[in-house]
Structure formats: structure tokens, C-alpha cells
Amino acid sequence: MDAKGMGCLIKKGFTLIELLIVFIIVGLLAAIAIPIYRANIKKVASSEGAALLGSILTSQKAYYSEHGRYTIDKNAMGIDLSGNKYFKDFVLQSADENGFVARTTGNGLCQGVEVTMEYSNVAGATISYYGL
User: In which region does residue 73 sit, left (phi positive, over 0), alpha (psi from -120 to 50) or beta (all else)?
Assistant: First the structure.
């Protein structure tokens, strides 16, 4: 005789305990993965600040070729910030004939992130991130 003929029940589906264990495992994985994911998204979004500083570098080099020095005048730079989502402004902290320092601070998703570029004719550009 087969199992049906003996009156045995055939088990179909999952028990409540099995489902709870699966939900607990998925919850633990999400609790670990979501903060890591958010930190990586913030790092990627902060690359917009580095791109802005790259535009400043290009504009400063053009200004240097005409005037023999770098400038702290933002209006002389001619940089369009309308397409930026997280880094909408910048500050030129110092500038002379040897180099300059520029800084931009994020908002929105990049709130608290500061990207700084130090450029010198000898060493080139160095970009630093704070707040990541």
C-alpha cells in the first residue's frame, strides 16, 4: 500500500516557525546591508563635489594663462552651478601666483560633506573629503 492508503497526511507548505526564522534572517541581513548601502550612496553623491572642483581647476588654469596668477573672484570663474544637485556653491579660500585652495560643502544627501582642493604649480591638485 502507498502512503495515501494508510491514512498518512502529506505535509505541504511551511510551518509558522520556519517562516519566522526566514523573516528573522532577512531582517538581520537588511539591518547590516542598509547602513553600508547608504554610506556608499553618500560617497558616490559626493563625487559631484570633486567634479565641481575639477571645473574650478580648469577655469583657474585658464585665468592663470591670461593673468599670471590665480583668482579668488568667483565671478571671474564663469562656472555654471545650475546642474548641481548636492554641491551648489563653492568658496575660493586663497589664491596667488603659485596655487589656490577651493572648498565646496554639500547639502541634501551630502549634508555635512566638505570637499577641498589644494592646487599648486609644483605638486598639482590634491582633493580631500571630510564628513564621509
Answer: beta
Cβ neighbours, 10 Å, residue 91: 12
CB count within 10 Å of CB 60 equals 23
Question: Could you report the per-residue pLDDT of 36-46, keeping only the tens digit for each?
Answer: 888 888 888 88
Nearest residue to 62 via CA among 79, 38, 48, 50: 79
Domain positions in the chain are: 46-130
**DSSP element (H, E) containing 93:** strand 91-95
In this predicted structure, what is the pLDDT of residue 2?
55
Q: List helix spans (H) across 68-102.
A: 74-77
